[in-house]
Design a protein that fits this description.
Elements lengths: L2 E2 L13 E6 L2 E7 L2 E3 L3 H8 L8 E6 L2 E8 L11 E4 H4 L5 H19 L11 E2 L6 E2 L6 E2 L4 E10 L2 E7 L10 E4 L6 H13 L2 E13 L4 E12 L9 E8 L12 H12 L2
The structure holds zinc ion.
Length: about 270
Amino acid sequence: MSFSQIHDVNARPQAADTVLACWDGSLLVRQNAGAVELPLWSGVEPCVASSLEGDPLHVGQLEGRACWLLSLAGEQAPEVQGFEWLPARSLMGMFDEAKANAAACALSLNWWRKRSRYCGACGSQTEVLDSERVARCPSCGQMYYPTASAAVIVAITRGETILLAHNKGFRAGVFSTLAGFVDAGESLEQTLVREVREEVGIEVEDIEYVASQSWPFPNSLMVGFRAKYKSGEICVDGKEIETADWFSRYHLPVLPVKGSMARVLVDNWLQRRL
Ligand SMILES: [Zn+2]
């Protein structure tokens, strides 16, 4: 079971191809015996044709079949018998790895397409090229590729404890690792040190890369690290972070959803000490 993002410019949708239909942050899926299934082209396309925004976009090969992004617009999500619309964010922890990768790619492309319609340099309407994934301005030639905003996320440990924080935007009781976007001119390590200092007032050392993940909400690349506590006392910024503390493995708060980079970092920490 795999997903490969090879963009086939000659591909045309076939009846048994897989569809990632996006409408207002939701994806069209079917829950079946604990698995989350995606619809096929033949079952979806006739039901959604009138809501289509732009041409179907070839996303890649999912489990041996081509898969397609259908970007949908309109006040209401079109009904497709046997399927339901679920928030894409909640699906990332329910999909298997291949589907999660395909969904991340489709959502990123959806976001890019919606936000590159006009040239930021001269204001003209852009056109998506057939030959590659790029929106080109016909007036000034500016190219708009799908891009991601890099964000650093870090699991900070102190002895047998881990630093977790509750952000104002989180659900009640949920604590996560610290994260922040890379600022202009910064390296990933500089972002990490700055964000930790700004959000909780401590210093860290022994920064190590762990893993990265596309997080298309709306278009982040999460770069995961671990680091060790060096000095200082927790003092939250009160703006983004409401409260933060050191937690032992035996008294953990509600953790972020499975499938997120934050959860990968916490699980990785838990497993390394088993
Ligand atoms: Zn232009």
